[in-house]
Amino acid sequence: MMTSQQVLNLGQDALNVMLLVSGPMLVAALVIGLVVSIVQAATQINEMTLSFIPKILGIFATLLIFGPWMLATLVDYTKRVLANIPNIIG
C-alpha cells in the first residue's frame, strides 16, 4: 500500500524531472524571444511572425545539444519508478 508520503515523493520527483528536462528548451526560447524583441524594437519592425523561425531553430539546436542528457534523465527516472513498483505494491 502506498502511503501519502510516497505519493508526494513520487509526484515531487516527477515535477523535478519535468523541470530539468524542459528547462533548457524554455530558457532558449526565452532568450531568443528577448533578443528578437530587442532587435524589433531597435529597427521598428513589428512583424509578429518574425520570432517564430529563430525560436524553432533555437529549440532544435537545444534539442541536439541537450537531447542525450534529457533522454538519460528520463530513462533514469523511469528505471527508478519501475524498480520501486514492488515497494509501492506492498
Low-confidence stretches: none
Residue share in β-strands: under 5%
Q: Helix-strand pattern, N to C? A: HHH
What's the story with the biggest beta sheet? none
* Rg: 19 Å
**Average pLDDT level:** 92
Alpha-carbon distance between the two ends:
5 Å
Shape descriptor reads elongated
| Number of extended strands | 0
Helical content (DSSP H or I, runs of 4+) = over 70%
Structural class: mainly alpha
Helix/strand layout:
Elements: H1 4-43, H2 52-83, H3 85-89
Helix pairs in contact: 1-2
Short characterization:
This protein is mainly alpha-helical and 90 residues long. Helices cover 86% and strands 0% of the residues.
Summarize this structure as a short list of keywords or feature phrases.
90 residues; mainly alpha; 86% helix
Give a structural overview.
This protein has a domain at 23-81. The chain has helices at residues 4-43, 52-83, 85-89. It has 90 residues and is an all-alpha fold. The model has no long low-confidence stretch (mean pLDDT 92).
